[in-house]
Design brief:
It contains 13 helices and 12 strands. It is of the alpha/beta class and about 350 residues long.
Amino acid sequence: MKRSRNCTVKLKTIAIIRLSSLGDIVHTLPAFQALRRHYPDAEISWIAEAAGAALLENFPGIDRIIVFDLKARKGSIARIKYLIGFVRRWRRQFDLVLDFQGLIKSALLSFLLGGSRLGFASGNARESLAALFYSRRAVYFPEERHVIYKNMHLLSLLGSSSAAVEYPVQEWVPSRQLSEFLEQNNLHDQGWIILNVGGGWPSKILSEKQWLQIASGLKDDYRLVMLWGNEKERETAAAVSRQGGVQLAIFMNFSDLLYFINHARLVISGDTLALHLADLTRTPAVGIFGPSSPQRNGPLFSESRALYRELTCSFCYRRKCDTMSCIRDIVTEDIIEAARKIDAQHNRNAD
């Protein structure tokens, strides 16, 4: 069936490819929401890796979440067999495929699935050769602008020009385990400030000493909870909890994490999932930035604030660094001051 370039033909089945990472998936949700509003009757599927699929289960409006588990296969032969089987299962199942990942592997997957394929221009794709696999490419989008708007810009190929950032949200309910944790630590009524020690990249992570300084500067006036997501992060969070006398969080699944952040008083975090979920839930946050740009990846919620130390090498997007000066030289007193100001302003707005 031939489609006109202004996309007047009704689309029945649409697939989004955004395999990872978790923060990038959150930054793609507003584009999904705009797509859902543009095509309210279409069946929209989302292809993601296992962790991303688990996160996406917590957002309404996605008709089908398809796990693309290529990474879990060991060895080239196993991966090729998996890819062949995946393509056989889903080929020609979608009228339209949108690749928000912009990698050669995601673009190739879109090509193998067949149908019309939309993606970024070569200057916007994370790997420029990915653009060769698309049927149509969006015009160049300034990379210094926020990635959420970049993702929404891809929908311009479909005639969607909405600039409103909306997330698909629902009421998240705490598990019994989280409810007991909140009850046992008297966290239900007073609200709490989350100190999230995670960062994904080594270059995004504050030191244990820095977190201890932040906790010491806030613990007398606020209920603090140290948040972590893996065992290495737990070691840091537990050390700060033990030395600083603040609460250590339990491990949370994505549903509990959304509830916990949604009901928090404030979130202090590096450029990682917890910060982006704070933006999604409109929870005030202090975002701490090192190698990544707050203009491109920072919170959009008006009550949040991004802190960074500008250097000649700023915003290099390197995962590792010999000096890590951009993150290590951030003044913790500035973080404490920003948290206090944001909380005071938020309380005035709530009155």
